[in-house]
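User: Sequence in, structure out. Go.
Assistant: Echoing your sequence, followed by the structure tokens.
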Amino acid sequence: MNSLLLLGRVFMPAFLKKKKLAELYDVTASAFQCERPSLRGLSAEQCLHSYAEFTRDKAEECIRQGAEVETRTRLYNGAFAMAQEIKRKFGVDCLADALITARLVYRILGIKFTGDQNGGIVINRCFFSSYYSSPVCCLISSLDEGLLEGLSGGSFRFTQRITEGKRCCRAVLSFDGGSS
């Protein structure tokens, strides 16, 4: 396992959480073709709340305007590019490292993410589920798809979501037409 990934599993300083959240905020704002609000003076926790409200509001507006297809593509592409940079920077070169890295990213976002070597993904707790409706979650999950596919080189799809009234989110990460 990469030593940076090992360190991240043990400790993640607040300034680094805020920095990574700001990067995701930038990717997301770009996908919605707007500026992100200033995060100056906000804690990492406050930034997360701001991000949840921002993404909810922008996604609802996008849905009202019927611009989901274009926005979904921009969200996916932005997250994919971000994941490719993370993959390069952390030396992610196997599925196990991709899953560890994804867990670290999701921890920053207040999401309890687990994955197994067969491609099964379970999210038991999602910070955003109290902010998002099912249609908003569906649109914003393009970020998840871009992130997981960018880190792993596989295909990622949700099969159920908390915002649909389920106890947890479930997804499948597959490779070459099958499970990893």
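User: And one key feature?
Assistant: DSSP finds six helices and five strands in the chain.
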